[in-house]
Write a structure and sequence with these properties.
The complex is a heterodimer of chains A (about 180) and B (about 130). With about 180 residues, chain A is an all-alpha fold. Chain A is about 75% helix and about 0% strand. Chain A has nine helices and no strands. In chain A, helix 3 (about 40-60) packs across helix 4 and helix 8 packs across helix 9. The termini of chain A are far apart. With about 130 residues, chain B is mainly α. Chain B is built from four helices and no strands. Chain B has helices at about 5-20, 25-30, 35-50, 60-130. The relative contact order of chain B is 0.03. Classes of the chains: A mainly alpha (about 180), B mainly alpha (about 130). At the A-B interface, helix 1, helix 2, helix 3, helix 4 and helix 5 of A face helix 1, helix 3 and helix 4 of B.
Chain lengths: ~180, ~130
């Protein structure tokens, strides 16, 4: 399986568009789910997934294999998301509420009980939320989180810690 | 190898890292384990609910979409380069024109100063004579 992927990457880097499409298809679900958790907005996650795919396609020649392909993709996706947030700061809070409502509605539609943590998560600042997710959900190390977010390892550590503290506080677990 | 690391983690990690009292929990303290378990359960549920949205389009559709996006991106890049070229041309032309006309301006200013000095001295000399 790993060999298959290495082969796909090699062919994609050599300009084989079918190999690239196959490679991106393979990682689509993982990327969408990651971006959904990071942005907590299904529509934005979909847009970001498309944008990330295009960016990966443009930059595939620059992928050097020093990290896994999925990590490389989420690095690009995370940076696109943070860039988008910086540009649309004003609309952010309103859109966030709408997005949460739509997720909640979807839970209700499928007869699932709503989780408080999903209500609380978007209230954590994006950079802390992403560090928290990467550390405590995806299990990345601080050095890798630093590389994904383009920040020093120590900053990644403090962001994950602040994110967790904020999560505990919002969930009434803080003493 | 590190290939598929994120994906592997996504599939394996929650059970291992949160309920197993692994690095994540021990690093964040025992008090956080409940919150982290809630987080994991909530996010897993979110994955489940949005499972259909997360399914990728067929490879040929994806290839077509990527080709279209690539075409648009190339067009955008071309437009940006053209804009950059035009602005650069204007800036370079203005700079060259400035540089070329600088000697004229320089000698013009020098000549004017000389003339002003000469006229001034003549006027002054005339004044002196009148005074005398």
């Amino acid at each position: 399986m790993e060999d298959d992927e290495s082969q796909l990457i090699r062919r994609a880097r050599a300009g084989d568009s079918h190999a690239l499409a196959e490679l991106l298809k393979k990682h689509y679900s993982f990327l969408y789910k990651y971006l959904l958790k990071a942005a907590m907005d299904p529509l934005l996650a979909e847009d970001l997934t498309q944008d990330t795919m295009v960016r990966c396609m443009e930059k595939i020649a620059l992928y050097d294999g020093s990290s896994s392909f999925s990590s490389w993709m989420i690095t690009i996706g995370t940076r696109l998301y943070l860039d988008k947030l910086r540009r649309k700061k004003k609309e952010a809070s309103l859109l966030k509420e709408q997005a949460i409502r739509s997720i909640r509605w979807k839970f209700e539609l499928q007869g699932e009980s709503w989780r408080e943590v999903l209500e609380v998560l978007p209230r954590i600042p994006a950079d802390q939320r992403i560090a928290l997710l990467l550390k405590h959900y995806y299990g990345y190390g601080y050095r890798e989180i630093g590389e994904i977010l383009g920040i020093p390892e120590g900053t990644a550590k403090s962001r994950a810690a602040y994110g967790l503290r904020q999560l505990r506080k919002e969930m009434g677990e803080d003493d | 190898m590190t290939e598929e690391r994120g994906k592997m983690k996504e599939e394996q990690r929650p059970e291992e890292s949160l309920s197993g009292g692994s690095v994540q929990v021990s690093e964040s303290g025992p008090d956080s384990s409940r919150v982290l378990l809630d987080l994991k359960a909530g996010l897993d549920k979110l994955d489940m609910i949005y499972g259909s949205e997360a399914s990728p389009p067929p490879a040929d559709v994806l290839a077509r979409r990527l080709a279209a996006a690539s075409g648009q991106s190339r067009l955008k890049q071309k437009r940006e380069w053209m804009l950059f070229g035009t602005v650069s041309l204007i800036v370079v032309s203005c700079s060259l024109a400035g540089a070329m006309s600088a000697p004229v301006l320089y000698w013009g200013v020098q000549g004017l100063l000389l003339a002003a000095g000469f006229i001034g001295s003549v006027v002054k000399a005339g004044g002196w004579r009148k005074w005398k």
